[in-house]
Design a protein that fits this description.
Helices cover about 30% and strands about 20% of the residues. The protein is α/β, with parallel strands linked by helices and about 270 residues long. It has two domains: about 5-130, HUPs (Rossmann fold); about 145-270, Rossmann fold, CATH 3.40.50. It has a ten-stranded mixed beta sheet, sandwiched between helices.
Length: about 270
């Protein structure tokens, strides 16, 4: 299974952004991983002054197996999302954990919906986006893992997120369910996709007894969000190319789920091989 040894946690020091920290800590503790807390400054940050200074969150007492490293870097002309992805690669991170919003949904000073979505869209490093702001925000405890849902349309590129999702399920003791999604007009296999899923999970190192399978059809994005709400899902795992028809870009389906899921969403960009 995939090991997570290093986690990048971007923050703009706001309470909303830092609220995603407990999730990073929980995962780091389970994997005995290092957390790299990252703040990007443009040299004129109005929220960090001599008299008013925001700080990095600190590890709670009792987490000695987790190492926390803090870094403040100067913003260049690069997009913040590009900086986050670059830093994650440079620090050899296996996972990015971040809130979908920071200080302001309007100003989007550093962490805003557009930044988080660009990271989810462009990062080949698995990224967990936690929506902690706005009317459609995460309503469940973000550091609890009991049920993980892996989304797939049974196409090969949706396997890209499964090793990470399966590893998190293994380390946290969570149940993992494959939710097969079929849009209007899609042909569902006679076996409901069982043979394909057995291969996907076997290649991810998951025994057959450790996962289940359910199906949703039509209006996929809305159906997934409703499923997550009614089944108290703690983490949704998907790829940018869910229901894409062969395009690795962030699809409208994946974007809707990231924006509206009642729980954190684990996403990765997967290149589709032809």
């Amino acid at each position: 299974m995939k090991e997570i040894r290093s986690i990048l946690f971007p923050t703009d020091f706001s309470a909303v952004a830092n609220s995603a920290f407990p999730l990073a800590v929980t995962l780091a503790a389970r994997f005995e991983a290092t957390i790299h807390a990252l703040h990007i400054t443009d040299g004129g940050d109005p929220h960090v002054t001599d008299s008013s200074r925001y700080e990095f969150p600190e590890l709670p007492e009792g987490t000695p197996q987790v190492q926390l490293k803090k870094a403040v870097i100067q913003k260049t002309e690069a997009d913040p999302a590009e900086i986050i992805i670059r830093e994650a690669r440079g620090r050899e991170c296996d996972l990015i954990v971040m809130a979908s919003h920071g200080r302001s949904d309007v100003a989007q000073f550093f962490l805003g919906r557009s930044v988080a979505e660009r990271v989810a869209r462009d990062s080949s490093i698995p990224t967990i986006i936690v929506r902690l702001y706005g009317p459609r925000r995460t309503t469940r405890p973000i550091d609890r893992f009991a049920r993980i849902v892996y989304l797939t349309d049974l196409v090969e590129h949706t396997r890209g997120i499964l090793p990470t999702a399966a590893s998190i399920a293994h380390k946290t003791g969570a149940q993992i369910t494959a939710l097969c999604v079929f849009d209007e007009g899609d042909v569902q296999p006679a076996d409901g996709g069982q043979a394909t899923l057995q291969r996907f999970f076997a290649e991810a190192g998951v025994t057959e007894a450790s996962w289940g399978c359910e199906t949703v059809r039509g209006g996929v994005a809305e159906a997934v969000v409703e499923y997550a709400e009614s089944n108290e899902v703690d983490l949704i795992a998907t790829t940018t190319a869910l229901c894409s028809g062969g395009d690795p870009e962030l699809t409208a389906t994946a974007e809707f789920i990231i924006r509206n899921a009642p729980c954190p969403v684990l996403c990765v960009r997967t290149e589709i091989k032809t």
